[in-house]
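User: Predict the complex.
Assistant: Input components as received:
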Amino acid sequence: MRRLLPATLFVAAATVLATGCGGSASSSSSSDTTAGADTTATTTTATTGGAASGTLAGSVGPGFDISMDKTTVAAGTYTLTVDDEASAHDFHFTGPGGVDVSTDVSGTGTKTFTVDLQAGTYTFVCDPHSSSMNGTLTVT
Ligand SMILES: [Cu+2]
């Protein structure tokens, strides 16, 4: 009987140690839950950062007219289609981010450009008649 007593104490001590390990495992589970929350936050950020996109239509000529179909758009990537109907005018679009696209003054027809628009003010002009043939596009 006296020999069993120390053995029982040893088992009890081992059980306490095992429980201690179990406690550590629970802490790890808590960390996993936190990581899950981070993943959710990342997804939310990606949704918020999703840039707008769409189409813009510019027109110049045949008279001394130049225009764009929208005056304000959200930042994003747009397909700009320009209808140049005059051999005396061009449609020159410039602004933030190095955007600088243009049709030819002597040429006519439709030209398509892909432009990455940032918040700010973009300008479109007919270069030979920029003082009277111009307009702006506001990007928010
Ligand atoms: Cu012009």
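Helices lie at 4-49.
Let me know if you want any component modeled separately.
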